[in-house]
């Protein structure tokens, strides 16, 4: 396992120190610390950690709101550490995209595995999101090509195969993607 870099966002200095020591014993490097959610978001944007350990109840911005922002910006996974286990907070954390939720008191035996699992899940989710984006892009390209093919078929009285070959030939001749050619056809002739 690669060594992790984390940010600790906890408003209690003693708890922050305990967390830092537990992480250090497991060769997990703390690259930043703060005592409120807003600072955690700013630090994460700047330092790009592998994981953010964050308390829920903090001044300025609570941990759930900070997690929501960090998740939306796809900066790093968030693990919430809290003394609260109410169903509503757990649900809010889930909706904010939190990847782990540990109830205090935290010990090294639960913390360290949870850190690695959260980072691993985040990496898996990131890969899936990239695959979805790639598939959506391919689908959009296919739709554009189909539309352009239809325009060429109608305009030049071509069959489907001939219209496709025309787009492909233009693509090679102009050194542009078929999607770019299709978009140009749609604009010029659509």
TrEMBL record:
SUPFAM superfamilies: CheY-like (SSF52172). Residues 125-186 form the ANTAR domain. It comes from the Bacteria. One of its GO terms (molecular function) is RNA binding. InterPro entries: ANTAR, CheY-like_superfamily, Sig_transdc_resp-reg_antiterm, Sig_transdc_resp-reg_receiver, ST_Response_Regulator, WH-like_DNA-bd_sf. The keyword Phosphoprotein applies. The lineage of its organism: Bacteria, Bacillati, Bacillota, Clostridia, Peptostreptococcales. Keywords: Phosphoprotein. The modification 4-aspartylphosphate is found at residue 55. Gene3D superfamilies: 3.40.50.2300, Winged helix-like DNA-binding domain superfamily/Winged helix DNA-binding domain. May play the central regulatory role in sporulation. It may be an element of the effector pathway responsible for the activation of sporulation genes in response to nutritional stress. Spo0A may act in concert with spo0H (a sigma factor) to control the expression of some genes that are critical to the sporulation process. This is Stage 0 sporulation protein A homolog. GO terms for biological process: phosphorelay signal transduction system. Residues 5-119 form the Response regulatory domain.
């Amino acid at each position: 396992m690669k060594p992790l870099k984390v940010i600790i966002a906890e408003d209690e200095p003693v708890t922050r120190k305990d967390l830092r020591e537990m992480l250090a014993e497991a060769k997990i490097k703390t690259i930043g610390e703060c005592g409120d959610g807003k600072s955690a978001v700013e630090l994460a944007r700047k330092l790009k950690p592998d994981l953010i350990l964050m308390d829920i109840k903090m001044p300025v911005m609570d941990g759930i709101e900070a997690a929501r922002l960090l998740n939306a910006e796809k900066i790093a996974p968030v693990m919430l550490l809290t003394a609260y286990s109410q169903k509503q907070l757990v649900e809010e954390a889930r909706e904010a995209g939190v990847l782990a939720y540990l109830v205090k008191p935290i010990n090294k035996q639960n913390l360290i595995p949870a850190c690695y699992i959260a980072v691993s899940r985040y990496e898996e989710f990131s890969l899936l999101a990239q695959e979805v984006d790639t598939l959506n892009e391919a689908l959009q390209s296919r739709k554009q090509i189909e539309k352009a093919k239809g325009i060429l078929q109608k305009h030049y009285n071509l069959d489907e195969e001939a219209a496709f070959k025309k787009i492909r030939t233009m693509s090679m001749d102009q050194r542009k993607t078929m999607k770019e050619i299709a978009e140009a056809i749609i604009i010029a002739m659509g």
